[in-house]
Amino acid sequence: MKFIHTADWHLGKLVHGVYMTENQREVLYQFVDVVGEEKPDAVVIAGDLYDRSVPPTDAVELLDEILFKINVELKTPIVAIAGNHDSAERLSFGSSWYKHSQFYLSGKLTNSFDPVRINGVNFYLVPYAEPGVVRQLLEDDSIHSHQEAMKRMIGKIEETLNPNEPNVLVGHAFVLGGVQSDSERILSVGGSGCVGAELFEPFSYTALGHLHSPDAITHEKVKYSGSLLKYSFSEAKQRKSISIIEMDEKGNFEHRYRSLTPSHDMREMEGYLEQLLDPQFYEKERTQDYLKINLLDEGALIDPINKLRQVYPNVLHLERKIEMTDLKKKQSFNALRSEKKSEIDLFEQFYNEMTTSEFTVDKKDAMSEIIDKVLKGAGSR
Amino acid sequence: MKFIHTADWHLGKLVHGVYMTENQREVLYQFVDVVGEEKPDAVVIAGDLYDRSVPPTDAVELLDEILFKINVELKTPIVAIAGNHDSAERLSFGSSWYKHSQFYLSGKLTNSFDPVRINGVNFYLVPYAEPGVVRQLLEDDSIHSHQEAMKRMIGKIEETLNPNEPNVLVGHAFVLGGVQSDSERILSVGGSGCVGAELFEPFSYTALGHLHSPDAITHEKVKYSGSLLKYSFSEAKQRKSISIIEMDEKGNFEHRYRSLTPSHDMREMEGYLEQLLDPQFYEKERTQDYLKINLLDEGALIDPINKLRQVYPNVLHLERKIEMTDLKKKQSFNALRSEKKSEIDLFEQFYNEMTTSEFTVDKKDAMSEIIDKVLKGAGSR
């Protein structure tokens, strides 16, 4: 049984004020070609089909068009879930009809964890949901974090799961495990946003969406496909790909990547203005790429962005290396990372940076009380 | 062949700050019951399924639920078009899948005017579109009004229409004809928003949406079903119903109404505060209805809205009969209606009421020029 694992299409994404829809269309057409070549038994899309709950209409039309090509024209079953960027309710519309054509779309989490069975493989669909939603749905007041929510849902799945069959979980979550856990730790103070990779042990393969790099975790069976395209300059050095999985009837699988190639890459460039505007330099460059340019010049420059855009039309962001505000930002960010501060100190720092009012003793007391409560709650889990 | 004609559901409608979704759900459940009883061969929904292009999520869920009950559970084909309140693109999503279950949803106007054939009847779907959209689609620069757009589209339909078969047009437009034409004339200066009923002559029946009263036109074959519910106090005295049509193979039909009954009516009440708050009075009243109350008292009253809400919890709007602003409004409205003014005079009056700046000679000249152009354009049709 062969399936393709992809995720994080983010249709309708706006990057530095530029809609990515045409780039997405280009790469999705390549994707449709890959589906045509590979002839998989299913295409799995692990959430964030759209970039926002109300995507622009051309993104809606693009998704409709691409899914129709895959599902109806190429007769390929689709398994898809909502991610945190999708509106579960809006995405769900019509899903009762779609399943007649083997397009299984799980937008809104329900109490039923029955798998979708395709060619001998059971796909368990777990769309993104806030812990509070899972708490209500499973009527379990002990659920306060994504870790607890996922654990309980997988517990429900295990009640009927047959471990002798190949089982695939399709989820959209921030899963920790392997090398990345340290550097990404800071994104989620208290860890409530994270889910441990060990939870997915019962499954032959876990097809994840949420983190945009296929290398976000290094785990034998729990994998991100990565996003369709680079969606921010922090992803400039990530490779982008889709995963092809071929699974036998015991759940053993082979996994390989295939890449899609947008005509415009997204990347950073660094240099002095004069150098970047020198034909000898730029004639070797792919000048149409989406660029973040870091200028090394000191002192005043006259309208550098427009000069650069004469050569590089898709400069999305310009940064001056030596700017006091940048330095200050960097300093405070580094300070935040290196110091082991208490929660209340972190909050005080945040408060002082964000507001102009004083963080009075009264305010501090009130906040401390809340933090204590939360920490106690977390301790008693 | 039997079909039900309904329109203007306006799911997600907000009336004076109150969401109508629960009332809509109640009445739509009755509608589903009627479909179960009548067992029609099709349900026709002539546009404005939603009240706005991005409806609230519970409206999205309600529409999904109701259409699923009708189409899948009751196995009844559905023919539906987008109205001016719907987003053509958003509503269209998934329609390629729906038609496999005989749910024919036409959101965005396309160049194909092939009918949907159900049980011997041809349904021609004409979703709402601005004249500019039709102009582009049909590549016909002469289209500037809804009248011209509809005429051209019907012309396209006639190229292949078989007049010996029963043909039904499903449209969403402001159609004039019969008794209402005079009073509604004022809504559309220049007439560019209106479509003449005579255009629909080629069809056995025209199922319209847009105007909310089934009595909006009195025409043998061109009919509005009216909206699902009363959606403003101006509709307080309109009857609300759905139409049941039984058509023979020659296109002759019988037409009857069935009504749906919301538990809360929408109506106006008039009286003195003291009287309205008198138990002897209100014990005979349906106090839960959505009410616009016109108070006849003169002079100051202390917090009348909250006093009234003790008895009538769903007062949506309170009006004092004798207020100078009201009188003034009424006078100017009546003046506007009774006088035969030229377009430029009407505009000058409008300008003076809407702005605080002077309608100078320059402005008047510019506007006159525009009006002349438009009128000339209208004359050369």
TrEMBL record, chains A, B:
One of its GO terms (molecular function) is 3'-5' exonuclease activity. Belongs to the SbcD family. This is Nuclease SbcCD subunit D. GO terms for biological process: DNA recombination; DNA replication. It comes from the Bacteria. Residues 1-213 form the Calcineurin-like phosphoesterase domain. Residues 263-355 form the Nuclease SbcCD subunit D C-terminal domain. SbcCD cleaves DNA hairpin structures. These structures can inhibit DNA replication and are intermediates in certain DNA recombination reactions. The complex acts as a 3'->5' double strand exonuclease that can open hairpins. It also has a 5' single-strand endonuclease activity. Keywords: DNA recombination, DNA replication, Endonuclease, Exonuclease, Hydrolase, Nuclease. InterPro entries: Calcineurin-like_PHP, DNA_Repair-Maintenance_Comp, Metallo-depent_PP-like, Mre11_N, SbcD, SbcD_C. It comes from Neobacillus citreus. The gene is sbcD. Heterodimer of SbcC and SbcD.
